[in-house]
């Protein structure tokens, strides 16, 4: 498969500086999930200027842009998430977050900038474009809420989107390296609370109480048993507890202890199994310690992100043509993304674009030190352009 033709390539190059500037503008003005009002306004303004059909206020703060090529073809969706995180940026750059406590620490500023620029490039040459491209600027990915609301708003229905694509920048790989994984590519994620209720009392008389701390500690330590002994070796699951809250004082046994954690899997079957067993395990372990446990899941969680095998192979060929076969791998990730819901509704492919800066130490996602190599933006853009042009041509 040959790379983008010279003239499309020139378009990507010509807009390189504007792409970086737009990403920096989003970076400087980060907004939390479902509060992306300025971000949405900037996106809508640019899409209007490019003469796309624009819908705003979709799923509260989302934007949909529809680009109809002049030639017949398929209808393809390109999804970009746009929200930031509740973090204070620790990176000293002129375009660092101007909003204390909010930061683009996952790269969604880059996703939004790439999608806007992609729309502009296609719109400027729509007489050469086959098919229709529906740009899905999704709010609230970080709370797994935006995709669900966009789908409920019917964003794939009018016009009927046949397949959906998107990319995520990642600092787990350097710029120039792309990952396309067929099948399960990202994990499911479910957040749970375990509330253990006992009988409070004096620390000197535990036999007259029912200590919820000890019971909750047994639950916590036993959880890995579910992964080690109940999940097949061919499968994978990650189960961690991020919060353990109980008690007030050295010698007071409390009434109540709370654990909060997450469970992630690469299969919906393992996901259902672990969710069921988690509740059983917590209940019975708590009872063994004369306490009661109540396990609740927070919201609906996020399903496994599954890439359609055929579409993933197509994206891989396209990616290899752009960056070279030796620079494309099929690494998956135990992270989760509500792109999963779009890919449950329609076949498609979500791929990773390496963006790790070469210097300055590790830049993990969701950390105040997060930063990207901006060279990744143009690489993401050209791959996206190649994918969308070909997919819409059919
Ligand atoms: Zn994130
Ligand atoms: Zn993200």
What would you say this structure looks like, in words?
By secondary structure, the chain is of the alpha/beta class. It has two domains: 6-185 and 306-393, Aminopeptidase (3-Layer(aba) Sandwich), CATH 3.40.630; 190-297, Alpha-Beta Plaits (2-Layer Sandwich), CATH 3.30.70.360. It has helices at 6-14, 16-28, 37-49, 108-124, 146-152, 212-230, 268-288, 309-323, 339-345, 375-393; strands at 53-58, 62-68, 71-81, 130-138, 163-174, 178-179, 183-186, 190-197, 201-202, 237-246, 252-253, 256-265, 292-297, 305-307, 328-329, 348-356. The strands form four sheets. The protein has an eight-stranded mixed sheet with strand order 1-2-4-3-5-16-6-15, with helices on both faces. Strands 10-12-8-13 form a four-stranded antiparallel sheet, covered by helices on one side. Strands 7-14 form a two-stranded antiparallel ribbon. The longest helix is centred in the last third of the chain and has 21 residues, at 268-288. The two termini are 15 Å apart. The mean pLDDT is 96. Bound molecules: zinc ion (2 copies).
Query: What is the topology, as strand order, of the major beta sheet?
Result: 1-2-4-3-5-16-6-15
Which molecules are bound besides the chains? zinc ion
Low-confidence stretches: none
Task: Provide the CATH topology of the largest domain.
Answer: Aminopeptidase
In CATH, the homologous superfamily of the largest domain goes by the name Zn peptidases
The assembly state of the depicted protein chains is single chain
Number of helices: 10
**Molecular shape:** elongated
């Amino acid at each position: 498969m040959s790379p983008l033709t010279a003239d499309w390539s020139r378009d990507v190059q010509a807009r390189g500086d504007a792409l970086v500037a737009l990403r920096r503008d989003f970076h400087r003005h980060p907004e939390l999930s479902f509060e992306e009002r300025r971000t949405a306004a900037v996106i809508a303004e640019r899409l209007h200027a490019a003469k796309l059909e624009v819908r705003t206020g979709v799923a509260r703060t989302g934007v949909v842009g529809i680009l109809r090529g002049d030639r017949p073809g398929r209808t393809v969706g390109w999804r970009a998430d746009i929200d930031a995180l509740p973090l204070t940026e620790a990176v000293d750059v002129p375009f660092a977050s101007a909003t204390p406590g909010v930061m683009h620490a996952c790269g969604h500023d880059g996703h939004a900038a790439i999608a806007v620029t992609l729309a502009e490039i296609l719109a400027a040459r729509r007489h050469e474009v086959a098919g229709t491209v529906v740009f899905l600027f999704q709010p609230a990915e970080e709370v797994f809420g935006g995709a669900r609301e966009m789908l409920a708003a019917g964003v794939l229905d009018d016009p009927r989107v046949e397949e959906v694509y998107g990319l995520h920048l990642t600092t787990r790989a350097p710029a120039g390296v792309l990952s396309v994984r067929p099948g399960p590519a990202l994990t499911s994620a479910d957040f749970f609370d375990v509330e253990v209720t006992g009988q409070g009392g004096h620390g000197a008389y535990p036999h007259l109480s029912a200590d919820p701390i000890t019971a909750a500690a047994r639950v916590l330590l036993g959880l890995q048993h579910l992964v080690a002994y109940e999940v097949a070796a061919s499968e994978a699951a990650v189960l961690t507890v991020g919060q353990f809250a109980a008690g007030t004082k050295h010698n007071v046994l409390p009434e109540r202890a709370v654990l909060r954690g997450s469970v992630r899997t690469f299969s919906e079957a393992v996901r259902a199994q672990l969710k069921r067993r988690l509740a059983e395990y917590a209940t019975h372990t708590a009872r063994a310690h004369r306490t009661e446990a109540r396990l609740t899941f927070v919201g609906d969680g996020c399903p496994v992100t599954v890439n359609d095998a055929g579409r993933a192979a197509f994206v891989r060929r396209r990616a290899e043509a752009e960056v070279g076969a030796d620079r494309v791998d099929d690494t998956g990730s135990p992270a989760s993304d509500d792109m999963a819901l779009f890919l449950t509704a329609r076949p498609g492919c979500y791929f990773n674009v390496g963006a790790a800066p070469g210097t300055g130490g590790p830049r993990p996602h969701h950390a105040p030190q997060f930063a990207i190599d901006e060279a990744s933006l143009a690489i993401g853009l050209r791959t996206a352009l190649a994918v969308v042009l070909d997919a819409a041509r059919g």
